[in-house]
């Protein structure tokens, strides 16, 4: 039996295909359409999933949409009513969208699906899951646990913004919810907006900015914005926010509380913005820890599953793990809305159809998140040839030797191997890699290759067997969703002058033996690399270790700022020619920048709208 | 449109929110007017609440 999960129409559209309960393919639409956070119906992602399984849409038994549009409409109406007459302008602007499109989502879905499978009666096959149930199912059913407590947190789904569930075998029982407008995700997004970043994509930046600041506004947030109870439940004081009725996240009272208007995206970042980032991060961590502590007490479970956009806050995730209330924490790698496609399909399989769940035996169902398209070596060579690329085919041994040597020589390496990752992180299938020991690598990658803000940190990919020698972490973190500190023995002591530095000035001070992946507070967003899920990437790092003694590489996504991560060899070649990546290892082909036709160089610096 | 109204009615009945029905109808009517007088359906908001 085959089930297709679909998330669409809000942000990060995606499709995922289950065959007899096993996840065989999943991909985000943005990777194919080349439009970041593409919210349109995921026609290309569906085509890919079907092609991967070698079937047509008529062979799919159920299509499951990841949320319930009518419930969202109900929330919308009740919110407008509760705040009326405020919010009329917002109502006037949103109604056309609902009346023309969103209320007719079932019909839209049927019509879109009919293009893929014209002779199928979709009425009986089209199902709708609830947004937070989809998140919870993606967290629990895909996890390596037989039983677990499940916590999902995001901006908002239909009504729920935070939910607690209990998973055991094939059952998943939603137990409690916190409803809109009270939302940790929206609180974080409000500060993302106020500090001048884009809501829905700039939250990572705010998290990255936090270690440069001091949490000076923490108490102010707790006193005025967030009523946080001992068990982690909370309420937001809507007097300071505008998102229920207006067109922005925050209002004048919020501005007055923090001493000025929101930062414009092109304005300079100051210490105040860093302090705000540190403060909201501290508050978020406190709220999340209170929630997980009460959940541990209440359920008695030693396993925790997380999903929803807030679960992408890997700093908070690391604190949950170190808090020790749960022995094991598993976070769905596609914790945002894209992962809702996986969860919707899994919820239909186990809950709607009542299919049993085999014991996962300690292994998760995401298969390293390598669930997207792959290309054979022959196909890659043919496609690169058509692009005008000059390359050498080296075979496995030559490819690894050359790649490891280039990395050890300090070069930036584009690494395109095997199936593309599902979720927001590049995990060694569509990655740009570098030497973490280099004190200039972070700046080079940020400014000359990714074209992004200089303060943003990079993540280390480390051999699983060596992780505890380098980081204060001794468990799997295959999806780069846990933050841990570099071990004290590998840190570099600061001089008194360096310690006196503030804000971004701290950035240029090397903090450890691997400065390119060590944030200013010694933290790192760790990815453990496992031979079982990505043998070629594992071997590459092992070779780099043999050459340098260091089992760690810088791993960042293969794209420039504002561009979706590359999907095809052509995307990779264009990004290679549009940035300062020096070597590209793609399948068994290796490309050197200095051997390429200069006429094929592209200007990628301004090719994409900044995120 | 009638099938939509029918589905909405069934939805409100399941949710036991009968009190929303007249509001839905009035809002749909007002919303319909807004659509008729304006035109393009463009997402208005920085956060996709809607």
Commentary on this structure:
The complex is a heterodimer of chains A (611) and B (50). The mean pLDDT of chain A is 95. Chain A folds into three domains: 165 residues, ATPase, nucleotide binding domain (Nucleotidyltransferase, domain 5); 147 residues, ATPase, nucleotide binding domain (Nucleotidyltransferase, domain 5, 2-Layer Sandwich); 224 residues, Alpha-Beta Complex (DHBP synthase). By secondary structure, chain A is of the alpha/beta class. Chain A has 20 helices and 21 strands. Chain A starts with a strand and ends in a 19-residue tail after the last strand. Chain A has a nine-stranded mixed sheet, sandwiched between helices. Chain A has a five-stranded mixed sheet with strand order 3-2-1-4-5. In chain A, strands 8-7-6-11-12 form a five-stranded mixed sheet. Chain B has 50 residues and is mainly alpha-helical. Chain B has one domain. Helix content of chain B is 62%, strand content 0%. Chain B starts with a helix and ends in a 13-residue tail after the last helix. About 14% of the residues of chain B have low confidence. At the A-B interface, helix 3, helix 4 and helix 7 of A face helix 1 and helix 2 of B.
